Amino acid sequence: MPNYTASRTVRRRLSAAARYRWAAVLWLIFVTATTLTRFAILAWSRAGTTNDGPVLVRAFAAGAAYDALVAMWLIAPFMLYLTIARSTRFGRGPQRTWRRVVVASALGLATFTAAAELIFFDEFDGRFNFVAVDYLVYPTEVTTNIWQSYHVAWASTGIAVVVALAMWTLRPVLHRFDQDAGPRPRWRLVAAGGYAVVLLALTTIVSPSLAHVSDDRVVNELAANGYYTFWQSLRGKDAPYDGLYETRPDSVLFPTLARLLGQDRPGLETQAGWSTLRTIASSSPPRRLNIVVVLEESLGSSFVGTLHPTDSASLTPAFDSLAARGTLLTRAYSTGNRTIRALEATTSSLPPLPGISIVRRPQSIDLFTLPSVLRAHGYGTEFVYGGRAMFDGMATYMRENGVDRVVEQRDFPAGTFATAWGVADEAIFDKALAEMDSLQRTGRPFYSLVLTVSNHRPYTYPTGRIQQDPAEKRRAFAVRYADWALGRFMREARAHAFFDSTLFVVMGDHGARVYGAAEIPLSSYEVPVLFYAPGLVSAGVRVNTLASSLDVPPTILGILGLSYESKFFGRDVFHTDSASGRAMMVHNAELALMRGERMAVLGPRSASTIYAVGPSGALSAVASPSATDRELVEEAIAYYAGADHLYRSGRYEFEPRRATLSAGIARDDANPRGSVVSPMQ
Questions:
Q1: Which of 103, 612, 629, 670 has a CA between 20 and 30 Å from the CA of residue 490?
Q2: Segment (H or E) for 123
């Protein structure tokens, strides 16, 4: 009798498991897809990964844990269905059909995500991250770009074929699963409870740090799981600094920041709390100059012939020619790998905060920005963009922070050549010239921020402009076209009345793509920054001071000879000692501060690492940081935590009365050109 009872209990438990074979199929579909994706990434990025077998084993072991956890979460709703579905209806037609639809949908999702991950990895050399989250919010540009850049129809057909073949193969297996409706509800609840316990245990054990199996960034990306990294990025899109990164009390934080920013006294404290407000006194007379900032899409320094000469012809002859007649920053870095990071840096001069850019945040209203300061001094201000300005919240950010007029794709004539990202660069520049002429006729100086789009997938442009065929859709050709359009713009600008009293700042918004094994792929952030104004800015000068794109606003105001009260985190590069230069940048969830040949990287969960920076930008972790290294970590904490505290508390707001401490620049009509700038070398 005991044996019979025991065997009956076993049969009941096996019967309980029978129903959940459907869940096992779904789980295997997702795990198989993510594992194959990992092998594909390994093959794809083999040149950038280690040949160390044990490290790769650890990467795949960590990946298996991520895959198991993600698959369990993905099928959790289906597990709930299997638990509550009545046995009397489980084998009937509608539910049988619905279960097959779920399996087919899982196959389609798994295959589509695998393909998307490979495309994303090809572009960004990483798993889904903050970039993927940002792009998902604006599907029009992203889906159109994908359609123009890849063979979407063939890929969709391939996915459909994979799903159809898999469903045909699984047909007899799924038919057998339909024959057993499973046990009584009590045993199903036991099975579901066991599933929940395992799921919660895995969720507790598996963390983002599990993927850090090597100092090789690509290997760590290999270990990760795209679903998991996307979810982590989605959760942290507006993440506050505190709670994620190492911090210090304000009484320590802001005196350190005050010292770094050169304030008159340690820790300038107001009634509202700590602030970065300080007086910038110019030693030069004010000059009534127009300001034109050109942000060139994806123009990394690696493309610029004058910075990286090669045996082959330069991709940027127009930029090289301008550099010979202007002042070029040779060690400048973008603050991020998205255009909106360049927009926030070159307008607000804030370090890149964790999560999404402040351009995307609804609370970014009346910030202390370059357009706001200039508008307070009588400037007309505008933003010229060839795409939809709603993308990434650019239009709202600009209008709320000192920009009077926003020009976007709908303001261009119908039929203008365009890609997913907007009209071609030549059309953008033509429109910008017309807008500048209109501003010039008002008799006021003006500030114009021009953002180009052509150097971006799908890398197409109007025919007949350069020798290379746009139908080939090659990045190098898009770089050549963008440079051609820039050269044409500058040639035509010389014939306009505003040219002789205009300072042009031409710079890359970020590098072309993220690549390499380093935790912070430094060379991908290096961008050219050129100050060009014949007779106003010294010609042929190269400034080797380490700089960041957030240094652009105070450097422009320094050239103007403007005395003002500033909250900017950036510095006037031309009046900064070369030994004290520094650069700040964000890469995924890592926040970096570089000074000299050292870089401090702040990571989530209060992690911090010091890297030695090699001559080619290669990074190597410092095993035993010195006191100077630890000081660099403290400075990084002061910059990033201080910026986050000020932004979130509303203390980085623009105060017109303070900003117009010196209004001489708006009234100095007698000497609009002033003296020639002699930047520090």
A1: 670
A2: helix 93-124
Cα gap 601→279, rounded to integer Å:
30
Tell me how many degrees the CA angle 502-504-509 measures, rounded to the nearest 5.
Answer: 155
Q: What is the CATH number of the domain that holds 424?
A: 3.40.720.10
Closest by CA to 295, choosing from 374, 398, 377, 365, is 398
Q: Single out the residue of 86, 150, 92, 155 nearest to residue 122, CA to CA.
A: 150
Q: How far apart are CA 644 and CA 253, in angstroms?
A: 12
State the residue range of the domain holding 509: 286-578
Angstrom distance (rounded) from CA 162 to CA 174? 17
Cis peptide before 317 (omega within 30 of 0): no
How big is the chain by its Cα radius of gyration, in Å? 29
> Can you name the residues that pair with 450 across neighbouring β-strands?
294, 384
Chain segment 364-417, per-residue pLDDT in tens? 999 999 999 999 999 999 999 999 998 888 999 999 999 999 999 999 999 999
294 and 224, same structural domain? no
- Spatial separation of the C-alpha atoms in residues 15 and 46, rounded to whole Å: 46
Q: Given the DSSP bridges, would you call strands 327-333 and 526-532 parallel, antiparallel or unpaired?
A: antiparallel
Residue 288 · residue 501 · CB < 8 Å: yes
Residues of the chain with pLDDT below 70 are 1-17, 46-51, 91, 124, 130-131, 133-143, 145-150, 179-184, 215, 235-239, 243, 263-273, 513-519, 656-681
- Contact (CB, 8 A) for 347 and 369: yes
Q: Are 227 and 37 in contact (CB under 8 A)?
A: no
Same domain for 391 and 317, yes or no, is yes
Among 555, 578, 601, identify where a domain stops: 578
Looking at the structure of the chain, the number of domains it has is 2
Quick one: how far is CA 383 from the chain centroid?
A: 21
Nearest to 635 by CA among 588, 604, 592, 587: 592
Amino acid at 463: T
Task: Answer whether 611's CB lies under 8 Å from 519's CB.
Answer: yes
Tell me the H-state helices in 519-612: 552-560
Look at strands 547-548 and 564-566 and give their pairing: unpaired
Cβ neighbours around 95 below 10 Å, total: 16
In angstroms, rounded to a whole number, what is the distance separating the alpha carbons of residues 153 and 63?
31
